[in-house]
């Protein structure tokens, strides 16, 4: 069975496009992994900010309140960043489909952040009053535990989702690897066979007489190259008596055979037969032609012992 070079290269174009798609997908997955790390870093950063809000210096209340307002605002900004990061997380949105759960957790985190900020604000404002400070401290500790627990829950879910994504990506990568491996070796085999066809057509001496052509196009080219020039259809190139090539036919055949391959040795032999006119009359045309061919064969055998 011979293969078509045109069809092979058409499939090769789709294969290269498929490789480009996989490379783009790999870049996208790398970007998503970076988003997952950013999400974890964001949650850990919120924990650090919350811890610092509970250890502000109460000796200077005005400075403490300025620091408190800045860090409490930063907490809400971090939550907004988490919402924005999820928009670019294709795997979580369309494969794991955890959008509702994720935004519910963010909403709860936002509520707990407001609760913690209010408790911290009461604590720092009422820090001069020991009774109010003690009650505010207890409320602040409860709010702190709740918001830290919520952040830890979100961190655990994020790690769980990352593990699920990794399992899915691992299976896809293994399947894709074997597909690319098989396709690469298959196309390598096809292109090697096409190259061998080209080398066979290009060679001068055609030493590979038993070579089996692989492609349809190379087979058609080989047939055209091996096709001999037919001059019998042109009466001006034939001797009317012997029906073999005359001077014009010899020159035409010489030019055609000389251009078949590079460095080809081609010669023109002119024979003169004694008493040719005497043998021309008694012999019929067919016998005359056979007689001339036998003379030519005998001459070639004698000149090439």
Strand content: under 5%
Q: Quick check: average pLDDT?
A: 80
Regions with little confidence, pLDDT below 50 for 5+ residues: none
Helix fraction bin = over 70%
Overall radius of gyration = 45 Å
Annotation field: number of helices = 9
Shape: rod-shaped
N/C terminus separation:
43 Å
Given helix and strand content, the structural type is mainly alpha
What is the strand tally? 0
What's the helix-strand series? HHHHHHHHH
Main sheet properties: none
Give an account of the 3D structure:
Helices cover 75% and strands 0% of the residues. Helix 4 packs antiparallel against helix 5. The chain has 305 residues and is an all-alpha fold. The two termini are 43 Å apart.
């Amino acid at each position: 069975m011979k293969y078509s070079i045109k069809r092979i290269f058409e499939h090769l174009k789709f294969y290269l496009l498929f490789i480009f798609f996989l490379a783009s997908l790999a870049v996208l997955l790398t970007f998503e992994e970076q988003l997952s790390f950013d999400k974890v870093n964001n949650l850990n950063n919120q924990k650090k900010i919350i811890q610092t809000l509970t250890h502000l210096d109460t000796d200077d209340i005005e400075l403490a309140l300025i620091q408190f307002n800045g860090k409490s605002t930063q907490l809400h900004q971090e939550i907004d960043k988490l919402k924005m990061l999820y928009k670019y997380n294709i795997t979580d949105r369309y494969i794991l489909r955890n959008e509702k759960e994720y935004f519910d957790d963010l909403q709860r985190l936002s509520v707990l952040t407001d609760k913690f900020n209010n408790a911290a604000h009461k604590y720092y404002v009422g820090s001069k009053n020991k009774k109010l400070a003690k009650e505010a401290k207890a409320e602040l500790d409860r709010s702190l535990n709740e918001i830290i627990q919520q952040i830890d829950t979100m961190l655990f879910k994020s790690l769980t989702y990352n593990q699920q994504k990794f399992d899915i990506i691992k299976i896809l990568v293994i399947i894709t690897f074997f597909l690319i491996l098989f396709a690469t070796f298959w196309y390598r085999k096809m292109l090697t066979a096409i190259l061998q066809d080209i080398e066979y057509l290009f060679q001068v001496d055609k030493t590979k007489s038993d070579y089996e052509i692989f492609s349809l196009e190379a087979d058609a080219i080989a047939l055209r190259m091996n096709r001999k020039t037919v001059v019998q259809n042109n009466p001006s190139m034939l001797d009317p008596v012997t029906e073999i090539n005359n001077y014009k036919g010899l020159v035409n055949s010489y030019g055609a055979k000389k251009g078949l391959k590079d460095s080809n040795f081609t010669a023109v032999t002119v024979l003169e037969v004694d008493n040719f006119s005497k043998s021309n009359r008694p012999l019929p045309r067919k016998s005359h032609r056979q007689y001339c061919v036998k003379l030519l064969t005998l001459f070639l055998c004698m000149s090439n012992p």
